[in-house]
Structures are given as structure tokens and as C-alpha cells.
Amino acid sequence: GAVVSQHPSWVICKSGTSVKIECRSLDFQATTMFWYRQFPKQSLMLMATSNEGSKATYEQGVEKDKFLINHASLTLSTLTVTSAHPEDSSFYICSARDWSSGGGADTDTQYFGPGTRLTVL
Amino acid sequence: QKEVEQNSGPLSVPEGAIASLNCTYSDRGSQSFFWYRQYSGKSPELIMFIYSNGDKEDGRFTAQLNKASQYVSLLIRDSQPSDSATYLCAVNPNTDKLIFGTGTRLQVFP
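The joint structure predicted for all components is written out below.
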């Protein structure tokens, strides 16, 4: 259980174009999803929290007009990188919250999608 | 600022040995703690979570939590070369976000 998919797994685009990445929770409903970015050999960086039916919450320094997030259903969140530039080339990873049981208590847990590698030429 | 600290490594252990990965956190009110494994070029995958003081075992993995000392550790018994990866400690400080450490790179050599 708790499977998260992302599409596409990789994309190459020209500078100035927009790219949409989809994140789906396949076997559970996720009211909250998260978008991360990771540059080579660096840590995960949280970009934004995506809440179903409401506006996303962006981390400090992340341009909300450049990284558009839509969480239209309980199983789908999308990230659109608008007017992409080479510096936006990165590994974009989503995660979705689900409740896990272990040892008699429930804990909300983040499960990650496989990631999308974006290369902007 | 809420922080999660990990030694970046690499931690090198021989095959069959026990690998011990440590993590400290700053927010004393944190309630749940997670260990993720990330292979190079891949996304993180959940290994286990723990929320009570003490040990929690799952196969070759044991998570240990000490809230008084604000540390959480992960032990990997009978380490295998396939365990070579970066291990991320994550803490939920009672918000909807996880705070991640920078990860410890583990190398298991034959």
C-alpha cells in the first residue's frame, strides 16, 4: 500500500517553455501532498505544501508564480514549472501524506513518488 | 529554527557488520520520527518510523528513540552492499511538514 506515482519520470524541454508534472496517490487519498526539489549531491528542499481544494503554501524563496501547484482531487497534485530556464533543471519529487499504523498507534507518514528529472536546455 | 542534524559521512562498514546511523533534533515537542533510504538518483523510500521511546525492530533494521536526549538512531544488522545509500532522518515537529536532516551516506564494502 501507500504507493505514489509521478509522471513524467524525466523531461527535456527548451528554455521558456512550461512543464507540468503530475503526482498521484494510487491506493490512498491524500489531502496533503508536498513538492520537493533536489539538486545533485544536495539535500531535499521543500518547495511547497499542496492542500486539496485550497491554495498551496510555498516555502520562503520559492516563486509561486513560477511554480504553479494545483491539488484538484484527493489523489492528484500537479506542479507546473512556467517559463523554465536552465537553472530550473533539477530532480522534482512529490510526496503524499497517509496514515500508517505501527505498534498500536497511527502516525501520518509521507510517501514519496519516484521523482521527475527535468532538464531545461 | 527547527533542526535535524546528521553526520554526512561516509560511514564505511564491512559486509555483515552493524551500521549505526545517528540523528539529533532540536524541537523537544517532536512526536514522530522517520528513517528514509535514498539510493543515488532515486527518490527517498520509507524504512520505518518510531514515536515511542525505546527500540523498534523491523527485519534487519532497528530504530531507537530517546526523547530526553533528543536523538534517534537506525541500526542495520548484517549490512549488505545493497544497503549502500544515503539515509535520511526526518522529524515531525507537530506540523504538517517533515524536517529532514541532510543525510548520512553509508558504504558497505564486501
